[in-house]
Amino acid sequence: METKEGPILSVLSKRLHALRKQQNCIAQMEEFVAAGKTLSQEKEAMHSKPVLAAIIDELERLRAPLAAALVEELSTIFALLPVPRPSRTSSSFSCTISIMSFTRIFVSCSMRGVGRHSS
After folding, report:
1. What is the pLDDT of residues 46-78, one digit of tens each?
2. PANTHER family under this entry (predicted)?
3. What angle do CA 34, 36, 38 make, to 5 degrees?
4. N or C, where is the chain less crowded by C-beta within 10 Å?
5. Is residue 67 part of a domain?
6. With bands split at pLDDT 50, 70 and 90, how would you rate the model's confidence at 92?
7. In this structure, are residues 78 and 38 in contact, taking their beta carbons and an 8 Å threshold?
8. 119 inside domain
9. Does residue 78 contact residue 100 with C-beta atoms inside 8 Å?
10. Cα(73)–Cα(117) distance, rounded to whole angstroms?
11. C-alpha distances in angstroms, 13 versus 27, 77, 78, 109?
């Protein structure tokens, strides 16, 4: 089963996707130049190749620590949440407990890397 990234890691993934797309364009330009074709304005983009590779590498290295930090932060927040007390008039109590239990299980599994897919 494939897990969906949350909004924070999704931002990182979208940025990596855009950077890889730029990297692929540069690779195509290099192939054109190697084939003897001339380029006009794209020459400046080719100069940014080392910087682009460094940025992609840095963001890929940050993915795992950011995911771990996010899981840790969420588990801390959920650990500090008060557990609601049952009342005879509260029909949503069992639903609330179920959600909190699921969330704690999810955070626990995320910390161990359960359910992650490789990119």
Report:
1. 778 888 899 999 999 988 888 888 888 888 888
2. GLYCINE-RICH PROTEIN (PTHR37736:SF1)
3. 105
4. N
5. yes
6. low
7. no
8. no
9. yes
10. 21
11. 21, 25, 26, 21
